[in-house]
Amino acid sequence: MQLVEKYYRLLIRVSSSLRSPFLLAVRLYWGWQFMQTGWGKLTDIGKVARFFTELGIPAPALTASFVSALEFGGGLLLVLGLGSRLIALPLVINMLVAYAAADREAFFSIFSNPDKFTGAAPYTFLVASLIVLIFGPGGVSLDALFAGRRGAGKVQRIVDGGSRVVVQN
């Protein structure tokens, strides 16, 4: 039993050491993808506005400009790891709206036809945004650099029994 426990601890230690590289890879790849889709929309904003009109989205020209800037700027911030969780939230909302407006059938088939749901264009963008929102940008980011400089990288909490636990952000 001790041997199993020993190897389990090793597995946890090794897999935990991959957290920051994984989050860096997610941020770099999907940040770049967001930048590309945002740039594509920015350079043909009329086409995006017409598509949004067809979908019945209110204020299509304004919304097209907002979404385009959000995706390009948000992608850049993800690549840099700057304001990562802050920008991940509007990106998650953006992808949920994209599902509901442009891929409604896929969105509502999450349980009845999961392949259709996961095959829709917004899916991987949504998952990447959720990963960054929930787990943060990782240690290789401007967020981590700035947090380390101002001492906000660690938060002390009091837990049951009065013992202090240091939690890494």
Q: Your description of this structure?
A:
With 169 residues, this protein is mostly helical. The protein has one domain (2-168). Helices cover 73% and strands 6% of the residues. The chain has a two-stranded antiparallel ribbon. Strand 1 (154-158) and strand 2 (164-168) form a beta hairpin. The protein is flat, with a radius of gyration of 20 Å. 24% of the residues are buried. Residues 155-160 have low confidence and may be disordered.
Strand order of the largest sheet: 1-2
Apparent shape: flat
| Number of DSSP-assigned strands | 2
Biggest sheet overview: 2 strands, antiparallel
Low-confidence stretches: 155-160
Number of helices: 9
SSE topology string: HHHHHHHHHEE
Helix content: over 70%
Whole-number radius of gyration?
Answer: 20 Å
Derived from helix and strand composition plus strand pairing, the structural class reads: mainly alpha
User: Into which percentage range does the β-strand content fall?
Assistant: 5-15%
Distance between the termini: 33 Å
Give the integer mean of the pLDDT values: 90
Number of domains: 1
Descriptive tags:
169 residues; mainly alpha; two-stranded antiparallel ribbon; 2 strands; 73% helix; 6% strand
